């Protein structure tokens, strides 16, 4: 099997950090790495390091075939094509088909928790992709990444400014994980020679309620935070009134509803199992990014 490793979405936040960890944490030589992106010009810095940069468009089968040629293991980072139902799944299915046709032997895929039992509208994209990978006959590693701590950069600044956290998550728990830990886990899985079919729930070290998260936020930022429980409809309408686009507000509400129903209450040691290092706690993440959060607020 070829020892070449390809990362899709290499110009994105996660993709770039995966490549950094391939080089720094896993000791992969630059010449073994292929960075795939729609716009190779965005990765000129990686090309300068000796990494092969290729164009790959998930809606252009020819570009996928060319990009995947000679690749042994592929990291398929889920795309952000959420503008049209079914578009992202079609992109992923095309990538899986192209990988098989090109002779790729192993796919690592960034999925989500419980894609087969979720209230989040895009869960079927992830479930369908997992099914396509399994049906391909290729060996695989499924990384079911929990909700990023980094995603708090959107809702937390208004919370810090107002002192109120509106939520419909109730007493549901979630084990947020940093994007950096997801990147470390993905890099390790991609660099591995393991061809066993595996599924990992990639989570942080603590499963917390919104009230517990708010208490940590209050401690780190030294300001009181009051958690206000509302209905899903109230949360959606409140976000729209605050300027969140109409089509995005229900999506954000679905994350709270999914948490409330216990579908995000998953906490594992998978990050440490894969990388040998425990994932970052929420308190440590907030403290490390305190200045950035305060500026955004």
UniProtKB/TrEMBL annotation:
Keywords: Oxidoreductase
Enzyme Commission code(s) on record: 1.6.5.2
GO molecular function: NAD(P)H dehydrogenase (quinone) activity
Keyword Calcium: no
Domain of life: Bacteria
Protein's UniProt keywords contain Oxidoreductase: yes
Gene this chain is encoded by: qorB
Domain NmrA-like span(s) in chain numbering: 2-259
PANTHER family tied to this protein: NMRA-LIKE DOMAIN-CONTAINING PROTEIN, QUINONE OXIDOREDUCTASE 2
InterPro entries: NAD(P)-bd_dom_sf (IPR036291), NmrA-like (IPR008030), NmrA-type_oxidoreductase (IPR052718)
Protein's name in the database: Quinone oxidoreductase 2
């Amino acid at each position: 099997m070829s020892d070449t490793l390809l990362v899709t979405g290499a110009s994105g936040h996660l993709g770039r950090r995966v490549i950094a960890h391939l080089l720094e944490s896993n000791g992969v030589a630059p010449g073994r790495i292929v960075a795939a992106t729609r716009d190779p010009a965005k990765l000129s810095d990686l090309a300068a390091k000796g990494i092969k940069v290729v164009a790959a468009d998930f809606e252009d089968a020819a570009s996928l075939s060319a990009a995947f040629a000679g690749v042994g293991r592929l990291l398929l980072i889920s795309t952000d094509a959420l503008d049209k139902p079914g578009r992202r799944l079609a992109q992923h299915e095309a990538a899986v088909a192209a990988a098989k046709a090109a002779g790729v032997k192993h796919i690592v895929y960034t999925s989500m928790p419980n894609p087969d039992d979720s209230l989040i509208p895009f869960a079927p994209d992830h479930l369908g992709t997992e099914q396509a990978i399994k049906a391909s006959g290729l060996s695989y590693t499924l990384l079911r990444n929990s909700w990023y701590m980094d995603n708090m950069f959107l809702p937390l600044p208004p919370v810090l400014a107002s002192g109120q956290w509106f939520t419909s998550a109730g007493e549901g728990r979630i084990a947020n994980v940093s994007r950096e830990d997801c990147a470390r886990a993905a890099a390790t899985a991609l660099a591995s020679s393991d061809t066993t079919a595996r599924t990992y729930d990639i989570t942080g070290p603590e499963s917390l309620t919104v009230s517990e998260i708010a208490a940590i936020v209050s401690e780190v930022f030294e300001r009181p935070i009051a958690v206000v429980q509302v209905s899903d409809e109230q949360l959606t309408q409140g976000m729209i009134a605050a300027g969140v686009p109409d089509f995005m507000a229900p999506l954000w509400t679905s994350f709270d509803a999914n948490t409330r129903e216990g579908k995000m209450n998953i906490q594992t040691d998978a990050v440490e199992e894969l990388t040998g290092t425990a994932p970052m706690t929420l308190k440590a993440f907030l403290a490390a990014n305190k200045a950035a959060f305060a500026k955004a607020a």
